[in-house]
Amino acid sequence: MARILLAEDDEIMRVSVYDKLKQFGWQVDEVENGLEGVKLLEENDYQLVISDIRMPELDGVKLLEKVKEISPETDVIIMTAYGSIDDALDCLKRGASEYILKPFDMDDLIIRCNRIFDMQSVKAKCTTLEENCILRKSDLVGKSPAMEQVFSIIEQVAPTNATILITGESGTGKELAARSIHKRSLRKDKAFVSINCAAIPEGLMESELFGHEQGSFTGADRKRKGKFELADNGTLLLDELGDLPGPLQAKLLRVLQEGSFERVGGSKTISVNVRVLACTSKDLQTEVDEGRFRQDLLFRLKVIPIVMPALRDHKEDIHDLCLHFLKEFTSPYNKAFSIANEALTCLESYDFPGNARELHNLMERAAVLSSGPVIGSDDLPTELCKPDSHIHTGFKLADNMATAERACLQKALNHCEGNRTKTAELLGISRKNLWEKLKNYGIS
Q: What residues does 4 pair with on adjacent strands?
């Protein structure tokens, strides 16, 4: 339900506008001067402020400035009986959404209010569409039994409101699993908000999660909503939850249990309807045992556990993953990529400590460096396809550089089908220099 703040010093006008707005089911708070309006702005969230331009103590222009300072996303309609073009332009420049002259038709005011709420709805939908575009581009891939089990759990739990804890090594696709759950949930048309608990300094984390009031700390020059408020009626992903500071774990537990919290520096209790998903690459039970994570919070989060398998445990998906990643690079590099069998064999013999994220980076590297549309073994790092080639070189720089140079020469020669003139041109060296290097490395 939309919430409106009405500021008007004329009692008859204030009552008339109030009654008309209430007929449309909107929640309306009324004040007779700007100072009272500022006080309510600091205590509540409003989608729209309707204010007279001339009021005692604090006029409508000053109130408009306060609205844009405290709550920039709130729209403002200015009413006046002493209108001029200059006044209208001044108010619009300061951020007013509408400027209306008294006396006015009440139906005209309602049309303006509806238009503003429609625009707010469009903005919210645009944000959701942007998130959905990301969701469509990024999805889980795999046909192995390990991934089929993950897909099965996601299909079962996505339509519910259950809290889900997604664990697994770094790079296994935990965030993609969370996005997949949201995309298949009943909240798919609402916001999907993500916060990385490991990337934000401890001193700022509480404000990021729960928001803050104006003046609550140095630098808090305006009221700010936190991630929980932004995700209201949608989904909130707490990424790398294992790094959440201890003092905030108790506050998070309360939000999960009661659905309410207070902003930093505020006393007003804010209620939200948010589905929480959590991801971590840490073993939270070990964190509990060592006193760094709350046992009761772990119980509350682990309603539905999902474990993302490491890539080495489902190597049969590597081919599909390669094609999925290479398709992503088709447009940027104007090539329809595929992967050769020998390159696939190399990849399947590798354990991928960085999991699917490492494979993604390898495919991007290959797409950039490949001279053709087919990714071959020569387009992959030498150590990937020839894991034993560096065993006896040790740590001497000269030996390792010589090995890399030999591999580069061989790759260029193969690319030019043995034509030494073209190979020399490709490498940017003379034909004589190429002949000497080939002879030195014993390359025929």
A: 28, 48
Tokens of 157: 């739990």
Decide if domain 388-444 falls under CATH 1.10.10.60: yes
**Per CATH, domain 3-121 is 3.30.70.1400:** no
DSSP states of 16-27: HHHHHHHTTT-E
**Please, which residues bridge with residue 69 across strands?**
none
Q: Which residues of the chain have pLDDT under 50?
A: 135-138, 387-392
Query: Buried b vs exposed e over 142-175: b needs ≥16 C-beta within 10 Å?
Result: bebebbeebeebbeebbeeeebbbbbbbebbbbb
CATH class, domain 138-307, is: alpha beta
Burial of 94 (C-beta count, 10 Å sphere; 0-12/13-18/19+): middle
Beta-strand runs (E) in 154-286: 164-167, 192-196, 235-239, 260-262, 269-271, 275-280
In whole angstroms, give the CA distance from residue 98 to residue 390: 71
Q: What is the pLDDT of residues 330-376, one digit of tens each?
A: 777 677 888 988 888 889 888 888 899 999 999 998 888 888 888 88
In DSSP terms, 264 is beta-bridged to 212
Locate all alpha helices (DSSP H) within 23-144, ordered by sequence.
34-43, 60-70, 85-93, 106-137
Residues 6+ apart with CB under 8 A from 317: 141, 142, 143, 144, 147, 311
Q: Which of 309, 279, 303 is nearest to 150 (CA)?
A: 309
pLDDT, residue 279, reads 96
Do the beta carbons of residue 5 and residue 31 sit within 8 Å? yes
User: How many helices and strands in the chain, by DSSP H and E?
Assistant: 20, 14
Other Cβ atoms closer than 10 A to 52: 24
* Region 313-373: CATH code: 1.10.8.60
User: What pLDDT is stored for residue 444 in this prediction?
Assistant: 61
Q: Count of residues for the chain? A: 444
Give the span between the Cα atoms of 156 and 164, in whole angstroms: 12
